[in-house]
Amino acid sequence: MFELTAILKQPKQKSRIGAAKGRDSMASALAGLVPLSFLLLLVGCASRPLYPLPGKRYDGSKKPLQTFRPYNLAHRGSNGEFPEETAAAYMRAIEEGADFIEGDVLASKDGVLIMQHDVTLDDTTDIAEHKEFANRKRACNVQGTNTTGFFHFDFTLEELKSLGVKQRYPFRDQQYNRKFPIITFEEFISIALDAPRVVGIYPEIKNPAMVNQYVKWPGGKKFEDKFVETLHKYGYRGEYMSKQWLKQPAFIQSFAPTSLIYVSNLTDLPKVFLIDDITIPTQDTNQSYWEITSDKYLNFIKNYVMGIGPWKDTIVYVSENYLQLPTDLVARAHALNLQVHPYTYRNENQFLHFNFSQDPYKEYDYWINTIGVDGLFTDFTGSLHQYQEWTTPSPSGEKSATKLLDKIGSMISKYRNPQT
Amino acid sequence: MFELTVILKQPKQKSRIGAAKGRDSMASALAGLVPLSFLLLLVGCASRPLYPLPGKRYDASKKPLQTFRPYNLAHRGSNGEFPEETAAAYMRAIEEGADFIEGDVLASKDGVLIMQHDVTLDDTTDIAEHKEFANRKRTCNVQGTNTTGFFHFDFTLEELKSLGVKQRYPFRDQQYNGKFPIITFKEFISIALDAPRVVGIYPEIKNPAMVNQYVKWPGGKKFEDKFVETLHKYGYRGEYMSKQWLKQPAFIQSFAPTSLIYVSNLTDLPKVFLIDDITIPTQDTNQSYWEVTSDKYLNFIKNYVMGIGPWKDTIVYVSENYLQPPTDLVARAHALNLQVHPYTYRNENQFLHFNFSQDPYKEYDYWINTIGVDGLFTDFTGSLHQYQEWTTPSPSGEKSATKLLDKIGSMISKYRNPQT
Hints:
The first copy, chain A, is of the alpha/beta class and 420 residues long. Chain A is built from 17 helices and 13 strands.
């Protein structure tokens, strides 16, 4: 079960804290943020409850969440570099400076909440190579389209854990394919809680209608109930910007308004309403893009959510790969005190419109400074963090006086001799 | 001859100086850096001598060349955004902050020096659509390979000027295809001299053996003679970093050592020896990569050149799209006081190795801070400039005291209220 080849192909990363091995005690293994031992642990100890180390939960000395500039939302982890929604992708995102790690929650056949984006396993796992599962292929209706593939809810957690996750895009690094497993929602939470600074979580209630159709829980519980239960179990509670919330920040996101309204009765954690492309109606209420972005609807939904998450090309249309004039969606949302967290920013030039000269930093500049969004779902956490650190660096607190003097010193020292 | 359709498809750029039109006097048309009128002029007045405006040549108030950080060398102009080696590409590069504009010099059938990279016109012009030239297609030996196509030296300048340049890479902006003509070496020089700040030129003596074989000049003059003549005519002279040189900076580059040695007798302008991939011998002396990068050869060539321009993947090898440990080429060159200007940096992810997380700024950081090069040939002048401005901003001279106070003010003002 141990993927020793993972050790050989690990990129050269210095771990900040020393290694701690041993399977017997989850506690000792969680002693540090060492990717390898943590991964071995995840592989070996899937679905056991994870107990926090004494003193490892929130304590006053953890660097708090930044709240002075737009949120860096690590979309499926750093999936520009690692296969999406794996422990490696999330830990890399935290390393690179993510404010929140984001991911999609679905459920296994035996009702365990897992981190997985697609309802089928075909594009992001090596399911095709597992001949033992070949007969599980089937066709289901997914949001109006008949889709054939291997559906996640046809596999128990143990079976899902036997698969290897792969990088979905062929032009991204393929070297980690099949090396990392699917992780559970609880494992995702642990990664955030074990970070050396406060890192928030941004889980999505994904395809809830489909999950509830195919997966049943005892006691008549639904997907949304289990979702919130898990959050409560790990201490996630509190309104946006409350003291509790800032210790363990979390946003709940979904494309399904009924699910968001339903969980509003279960938790006061902040929620975000995701909005798909203009041609796609909501999966649960079959409402059009135009209806759910109307002032009337936004006025209604803002009783339940504190923000919206639209697809960025619906905020600013694109024609012949050039941006058009922005729509008024952000302006209207902001007028109603709703935050805007668009998706998804990617570095590759095929995703960048020509206004940005194939430069992802120009795209960040436009969305942050011209459009004025409040958070960005990005596949490249490191690039967004670098952009923000260069243009709006974090204030350094007590050390600022010394830092100012340092900065003045370096400004003066630039008056060097010309190159010879 | 006037390309009025150009107005419709120009991207929205504000011109810093007002427009000046009129074909009669080249002088009045050179009054400002207005892309459109300058282009019209280039189209209408090809190959007339360009007279400088009184007071438009170097005067002390022009912002001087920066020399405190590695040079931003606009490789073929901003050809990430515009078709390569056109006036538009060069003017855009100057706008974006280039220190030098770079280009390849070849010659037309009637002996006019032109800016053109390929010896054939097929990949970068609409020659295929000009049925009147269909019979000029032929096969020639280009550096050992039989190549079929339309060769630049089979066309007079007038004929070349009837062609439209196109963007060579399909994944870059195609909207300017056919809109701009090939420009002459003199026109290239004028663009640099008319810039509102000091901008250097970095012309290449391209394929001299082939040019001299197919193009003849009266009086037994060779390509290299005409090349230097043109530079002298416009006042380019002086050793590297001399007062004269800083007024009108220029580097002469070539893959052909004999040409560099030859022009050393004609001008003391600094020269740079370009080095091709490890499998490709020099075009004139048939020496291998290993020979021309040996300490012995570098010691020899440094009597004639002040720097080398290698292909970057020969400085740091690449395996499975990851960088290997660097070779010692840069170290040895620097030990001999030779500068290193590698080519070519491009933003698109297919050109970025995986170490850089699909982020061109990480690549700049590696080459500038880890490898320590002295100049970078880039297709994306704007991105390199932005990187340099963020990490090693230009000192601002007399205004620095005010600027420091501004910076201190903005550092303090970041202690804002958290997001609500």
